[in-house]
UniProtKB/TrEMBL annotation:
Pfam family, one: Amidohydro_1
Domain of life: Bacteria
Name by which UniProt lists this protein: Amidohydrolase family protein
KW Ion transport (keyword) present: no
Region (Disordered): 317-336
Alphabetically ordered keywords of this record: Plasmid
Domain Amidohydrolase-related: 87-437
InterPro entries: Amidohydro-rel, Metal-dep_hydrolase_composite, Metal_Hydrolase, Metallo-dep_Hydrolase, OTAase-like
The UniProt record lists the keyword Coiled coil: no
Gene3D superfamilies: Metal-dependent hydrolases (3.20.20.140), Urease, subunit C, domain 1 (2.30.40.10)
Record CDD domains: Met_dep_hydrolase_A
Signal peptide: none
């Protein structure tokens, strides 16, 4: 599909206008009208399924949603018969590392990949990973970017319709202190660059400003050590409360939300005291900190899928022995902390931590299966990847539900995922994926 569309465009003609070059099948301004009819509809708000519904798509937006008999197609409208499917909103993965290894036939050490692979190659891996996510029904990704890997530029190209891919909200790079979790992902002998670390209040302030200048859609900061970074201990905090407060204050001044990587209780506490918007991972959270999250309205992005993937794949995931030992030690791999947080009223947002061999792109819905195993209903699990995720990203007016005026991000599931969440991660489970009104069910066959 992509290659054929590319061949039809006359890039060799020097008289081709800029407007002509910009118009293609992935442009969000495409004005084709489509009616998706005869579907059961889950709008993304509660546990209700509405039978025999139709959705009219005009351009990149949903123009109308009504019972099938009330929406009659015009002669110019394309009709998609969804008989036997459930239409759900395009899904959101709120924690991915897009420009990581996409060649899953080769096991690559994560830290060596980050340190030694050129940014141009990382960008091309990111294109492939994004297409895998899109074909899996994930039309929006929140990207924990890698510096100089083109994540921001790729997001722009997709927004302009020049490349197929999911909608991307990007943090250009993680804000890490010297010797902190982000810094320790790189070999100690590798020279550091100015964006790699920030120490002290003023350096933290400046780094937020630099990331905003680079096109940040949000800010990511490390508030604790991690399981996969070398030579640190998970209970160590990163950054003082004052340093975190200036990061949050500076970001919020420019309408940027802040995501805090935090496993340890002290790291989570400092991040919450600073006013971050989302806690990423939160593995060792206490009941006291859960209550702080409820009181502040902070969201939890558990990322259980990466631990599940590493446990299933072991050394084949590329995790070094030290990382595997740490994960098998004090990590709450069962995810019971997520159950405690949800029961207390914390809003859970779906995120997988998809990252190369560690947690492969295209398997995102595995996270939802793990939530259901913890006791969530399928509808509750789906809310974490639709309306609740959109709210956490500050995009609830644009995505997350099937409603008039929102982007036409729609997934047709063969069967009813509210009865069987596994449909979303099963071969043949999805019949069609629409992103911004465009059928992207098989966006680039050559990669699969």
């Amino acid at each position: 599909m992509f290659e054929n569309a590319h061949r039809r465009r006359n890039f060799a003609n020097p008289c081709t206008s800029r407007e002509q070059i910009g118009v293609g099948p992935y442009m969000s301004g495409n004005m084709q009208e489509t009616i998706i009819t005869n579907v059961a509809l889950w709008r993304g708000k509660n546990a209700e399924i509405e039978p025999n519904m139709s959705i009219r798509v005009r351009g990149d937006r949903i123009a109308d949603v009504a019972p099938a008999g009330d929406l009659q197609p015009s002669v110019n409208e394309k009709v998609v018969d969804g008989q036997g499917t459930t239409a759900i909103p395009g899904m959101i993965d709120a924690h991915v590392h897009l420009t990581t290894n996409s060649d899953y036939s080769k096991v690559v050490d994560n830290s060596m990949y980050r340190a030694l692979v050129p940014g141009t190659e990382k960008l091309l891996h990111g294109v492939r990973n994004g297409l895998r996510a899109l074909a899996a029904g994930f039309t929006t990704l929140r990207v924990m970017g890698h510096r100089e890997s083109g994540d921001v530029e790729l997001a722009s190209m997709i927004d302009r319709g020049l490349l197929p891919g999911p909608r991307l909200l990007v943090a250009p790079w993680v804000i890490s202190m010297t010797g902190g979790r982000g810094d320790l992902f790189y070999p100690a002998a590798l020279p550091r660059q100015p964006l790699d670390t920030a120490d002290g209040v003023e350096e933290c302030r400046k780094l937020v400003r630099l990331q905003r200048k680079l096109g940040a859609g949000f800010i990511k900061v490390t508030a604790s050590a991690g399981y996969l970074s070398a030579d640190d201990k998970v209970h160590w905090p990163n950054y003082t409360v004052d340093e975190l407060k200036v990061i949050v204050s500076e970001a919020h001044d420019y309408d940027l939300k802040v995501a805090a990587h935090a496993h340890s209780p002290e790291g989570i506490k400092r991040a919450l005291l600073a006013g971050v918007d989302t806690i990423e991972h939160g593995t060792n959270i206490t009941d006291e900190l859960i209550q702080m999250m409820v009181d502040q309205g902070a969201y939890l992005v558990p990322t259980l899928a990466i631990g599940d993937s590493i446990a299933r794949r072991g050394s084949k995931s590329g995790v070094p022995a030290q990382g595997l030992e740490k994960m098998q030690g004090d990590n709450d791999s069962s995810g019971q902390y997520v159950r405690r947080a949800k029961d207390a009223g914390v809003k859970i947002v779906m995120g997988t931590d998809s990252s190369g061999n560690l947690c492969e792109f295209g398997e995102h819905a595995r996270e939802l299966e793990l939530y259901v195993k913890l006791g969530m209903s399928p509808a509750e699990a789906l809310l974490t990847t639709t309306s609740v995720a959109a709210e956490a990203l500050g995009m609830e007016d644009e995505i997350g539900t099937v409603e008039t005026g929102k982007y036409a991000d729609i997934v047709l599931v063969n069967g009813n995922p509210l009865n069987d969440i596994g449909l979303l991660n099963r071969e043949g489970g999805l019949r069609a994926v629409f992103k911004s009104g465009i059928d992207v069910t098989n966006p680039w066959p050559a990669i699969f």
